[in-house]
Amino acid sequence: MARSLYGLLALATFSAVAASIHQQPLSRVKEKPNIVFILTDDQDIELGSLDYMPLVHKDLINEGTLFNRHYCTTAICCPARVTLWTGKNAHNTNVTDIFPPYEGHNENYLPVWLQSGGYSTFYTGKLFNTHTTDNYNAPYPAGWTASDFLLDPFTYQYLNATTQRNRDPPVSWEGHYTTDVIAEKAYGFIDDAVALDDSFFLTVATVAPHSNVAAFEIDLDDPLNSPLDSILGVVTPPIPAERHKHLFPEVKIPRTKNFNPDKPSGASWVKALPQLNSTVIEYNDGFYRARLQALQAVDELVDGVVSKLKEHNILDNTYIIYTTDNGYHISQHRLHPGKECGFEEDIHIPLIIRGPGIASGHTSNVVSAHADLSPTVLHLAGLDPRPDFDGSAIPVTASDLLAAKESGERGEHVNVEFWGLGLPEGKYGFSLDDGKVVGFGENNTYKALRIINPAHGHNLYYSVRCTNEHELYNLTSDPGQLHNLYPHPYPHQSSLSYSSERHPHHRYQHHLKRILRLDALLLITKSCAGITCRAPWSVLHPQGNVNSLANALAEDYDSFYADVAETASVRFDKCLLGYIKEAEGPQSVGFDFDQWLIASQRGEL
């Protein structure tokens, strides 16, 4: 639908900003930069979606910096979004799936902090799942000067959205394309923000390229016992705008080495998946094209936001941040469309930032994660970070990067975690046969680490599943994560016991030496909080001389890590659908290097 028609709809629907503001900013801060945060839903980077967004390239990538090593820590929407807005990993927010409760976050998250710092704050689009036409006011989301949220059960219906503005009742947009509706609301909020003459923070959260999901009902008191077909609704490929349905007719999913491989890969339920047949592959190719087509309206939205900022002559004083909640896989590792896995397709995601002091046309290789984004926004706004953040501000300007290098604060690791099932999407992903689920993954709960440090040759993924199966991949030699390097030649021995006499094979010792360090680091990060998330090596080496895997691999520490492994290693006692600490095995190593060294010198070990 043409933007002019949406402009008329907007004039008829949007109330004047003076009558709609319920939370006034505390002070005027015109000298501070504006911040526009554009958040897509389920957008991949590994499968090349950005290659099909020319306006994002023109307006953001060419004029800003692409952060090439950005990750989500939990590959599903609500946990990822809560991490994004709180700066805390999911094991500290206890938001681990798409269902509420989300208690404790409404008064203590990014927009509230920005308002305290003098910003006007605006939001349009998807906030969380189960934010519905029934509970949108119980309570109203805090922290927004003005808002216009998508509401369930219509959030993922591209042609049947329902939104709710400020304290007004919900409004149906049946027959209108959701991304275009959200775009017009975003343009209106920029106008409103400029009228206030304050610095502003605006989030624009589209649902593209998420699957289209028909209306469904969930018993919020007992969501997991709701009928399965009700929970999932009718999940189909995303619906593009009519003007984009003809695009990319010959495009197919990239045929990478991990695309529907001839041999099974991964671990646990993934390793048991059958190879996809030609009918499913053809369907999945169409699903992939629909995702690219649905992103075209987002591409236009980005250009529209930039044009609106230019119109008000504020583009040069505005940061634009573009990212998504999690990635997506389609046919890799024989998987049906979906997310939730620790594979690169699911956790490696786009992040682009444009604004004052940001290098144009630059690609940054700084390792970052969603827990870093709230600290980054506060830094850009000139506000102090919170001491309980699990993340830290990403160095986005040249001066930031220099300061980070001098301080050594930027690490090489990303904490990755998930609880629950791996749920496939699309018509071949699942079925109901006499009430029995067919085609679902088993429990998908896992803890993992992603380590990237090219200077030392490290490009690793290490994971422990709740079944206590381990995975170790070297993504330099195996970018598709097809060859699990975790050693199994001595099953009668403890998986982490270290002895050159018991395990003389050189390759085994090489992998085991890394695993001892990785497992100890994962033992810290899987339960970390605050500074222990930001600097986990300091827990193992409080003397401060180890801040990377390369440092930790020094031979002087072999005995230390062998003793750590004998004392505690990462394991699960149960496979559960959520975060219950008592089911997740040891929570710490029990001693640090200084204590170990003293005991060793005394002959107490």
TrEMBL record:
Modified residues (3-oxoalanine (Cys)): 77
Catalytic activity annotation: an aryl sulfate + H2O = a phenol + sulfate + H(+)
GO biological process: phenol-containing compound metabolic process
Residues in Sulfatase N-terminal domain copies: 33-382
Record note on modification: The conversion to 3-oxoalanine (also known as C-formylglycine, FGly), of a serine or cysteine residue in prokaryotes and of a cysteine residue in eukaryotes, is critical for catalytic activity.
Cited Pfam families: Sulfatase
Signal peptide, first to last residue: 1-19
Family, similarity comment: Belongs to the sulfatase family.
Protein name in UniProt: Arylsulfatase
Source species: Hyaloscypha hepaticicola
